[in-house]
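Progress note, sequence design subtask.
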């Protein structure tokens, strides 16, 4: 049973502090050629086209609420965390510049960057003139940041801290918004969508979508594909985050871990490490539709979608929405992340 209508949820969201960063609603469109090839009706929801720049992505929706809160608190600087090729860190830097805020990034060297030739998001971070701190894998970056922040605040700066991926209850409300926006588009265009497939990393996107689904009801099944290893508590943590996001919106309802479907079967050999199935998925979308996926997130989630169709987990003739969360800059990152895209297998 719906707790609220999409219209009224969108009005509630509009009443929260938010910075206007992206171009919404993001497009929803059908992939005719690939639909025919797969025997399903496949739509893309284009969070990759969110703005601020041509390299937008799913973090912009979260940042609208996060930076709204940052500005409301009168902060001048934003501190956040990620890998050296973090999409979230890069989008935070862009969003900060749009709002006149100072971006400060603590980036873990999961994949070692080439100091002589900065690539992809790390290059963009420098172009946005973010203050970049590269942190070795074995250092506690949150603790390191905390000591830096204490120092900066003594000097009179005011820092707003955003967790990795922007995944707290403020950021997650952005994806309750995305869910309501999608529900509105599906209804207006009379699209009988049954499945929503997306990639999950830090969990804020999933938490927000699950909050939206809890509030609006409906039969859309959310199938989440992990971008890296997730421990046993992941579902519990995301469910709690989802419940907190619902609270943030002023409603009272609980999301349970059993309501989430997180597939850990498609990220191997690891986060930011290319695999053959994702490489093939990227090549397939490029070849049949002229569209780009990325090797770290959307390529792996799309390889899961293809496998679900192949094995009947998603039956023939189903209507499926794939949430394109962005990430295409990874196509121009370190070779270990890119994989063998240019060569046929
Ligand atoms: C961050 C990211 C995700 C995962 O979103 P979370 O909210 O961190 O789970 C998926 N795809 C891309 C391209 C991303 O940058």
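Output:
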């Amino acid at each position: 049973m719906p707790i609220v209508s999409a219209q009224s949820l969108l009005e509630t969201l509009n009443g929260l502090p938010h910075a206007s960063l992206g171009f919404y609603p993001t497009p929803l469109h059908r992939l005719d050629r690939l639909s025919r090839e797969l025997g399903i009706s496949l739509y893309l929801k284009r969070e990759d086209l969110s703005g601020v720049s041509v390299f937008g992505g799913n973090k912009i929706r979260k940042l609208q609420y996060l930076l709204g809160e940052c500005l409301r608190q009168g902060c001048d600087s934003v501190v956040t965390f990620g890998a050296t090729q973090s999409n979230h860190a890069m989008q935070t830097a862009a969003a900060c510049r749009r709002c006149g805020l100072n971006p400060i990034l603590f980036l873990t060297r999961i994949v070692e960057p080439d100091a002589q030739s900065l690539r992809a998001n790390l290059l963009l971070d420098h172009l946005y003139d973010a203050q970049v701190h590269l942190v070795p894998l074995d250092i506690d970056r949150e603790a390191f940041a905390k000591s830096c922040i204490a120092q900066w605040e003594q000097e009179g700066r005011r820092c707003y801290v955003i967790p990795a991926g922007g995944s707290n209850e403020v950021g997650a409300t952005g994806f309750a918004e995305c869910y309501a926006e999608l529900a509105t588009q599906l209804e207006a265009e009379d699209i009988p969508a049954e499945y929503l497939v997306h990639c999950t990393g830090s969990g804020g996107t999933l938490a927000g979508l699950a909050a939206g689904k809890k509030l609006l009801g409906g039969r859309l099944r959310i199938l989440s594909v992990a971008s890296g290893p997730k421990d046993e508590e992941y579902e519990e943590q995301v469910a709690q985050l989802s419940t907190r996001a619902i609270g943030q919106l002023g409603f009272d309802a609980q999301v349970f871990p059993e309501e989430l479907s997180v597939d850990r079967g498609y990220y191997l050999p690891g986060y930011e490490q290319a695999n053959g199935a994702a490489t093939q998925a990227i090549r397939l979308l490029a070849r049949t539709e002229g569209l780009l996926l990325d090797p770290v997130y959307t390529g792996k989630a799309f390889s899961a979608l293809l496998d679900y169709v192949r094995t009947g987990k998603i039956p023939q003739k189903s209507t499926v929405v794939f949430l394109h969360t962005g990430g295409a800059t990874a196509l121009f990152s370190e070779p270990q992340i890119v994989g063998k895209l240019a060569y046929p297998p």
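The mean pLDDT is 97. Work on this subtask will continue into the next period as scheduled.
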